Amino acid sequence: MLAAPLQFRYEPGVSLRTRDFDYHLPDALIAARPLAERSASRMLVVHRDSGLIEHRLFRDFPGYLEVGDLLVLNDTKVIPARVFSDDGKIELLCLDRLSACEWRCLVRPGKRMKPGRTLSVGGTVGTVTEVLANGDRLLRWDAPVDLLQHGHLALPHYMGRPDDATDLERYQTVFAREEGAIAAPTAGLHFTPEMLDKLPHAFLTLHVGVGTFRPVSVEVVTDHIMHAESYGVTAVTAAAVNAAARVVAVGTTVTRVLESLRAADGSHRIDPGTHRGETDIFIHPPYQFGVAGGLLTNFHLPQSTLLMLVCAFAGSELVLEAYRQAVAQRYRFYSYGDCMLLL
Question: What does the alpha-carbon distance between residue 280 and residue 278 come to, in Å, rounded to a whole number?
Answer without folding.
Answer: 7
